[in-house]
Specification:
Layout: H1 11-35, H2 39-45, H3 58-78, H4 82-105, H5 109-131, H6 135-140, H7 142-161
Helix pairs in contact: 1-3, 1-4, 4-5, 5-7
Amino acid sequence: MSTTSAPTSGPARDVLALLPFVAAVAAVAVLGGLAAGSSAQTYRALDLPPFAPPSWLFGPVWTVLYVMIAVAGWLAWRAGAGVPGLAAWVAQLLLNLAWTPLFFAADRYGWALVDIAALLVAIVAVIALFARVSRAAAWLLAPYLLWVGFATALNAAIVILN
């Protein structure tokens, strides 16, 4: 009878390597969720522009985007994005994390706008860095870029209206 050990390379190892990326993104989502405890009430109380989506839409959109962000980071890592690419990926996650407490917990809409504008720039940088090693990783971040661009316009409108 032969014994087998856990693979040191191959598909199983590659899938296990996805876990830190999922964990990092999940931590951002959970911490953001904790900071946004009263987000639905806060959002409804604001003067919103006509293009503001309903509050229920944010959860499903962010769930899909967070999965895509994790997979993009993993794909870029597997393709050899190196320290610059992964550092940029972490930086955008930190900027993403900072927005929710600024906007919902602290009611600092102007500072949240500064943060989200920096996040938009960081996402563009990550896409550019990832595109050098993995087109799939870069394309996975395109919906994130579009959503954050929309959210930046929404945040700016909220600053003006409130």
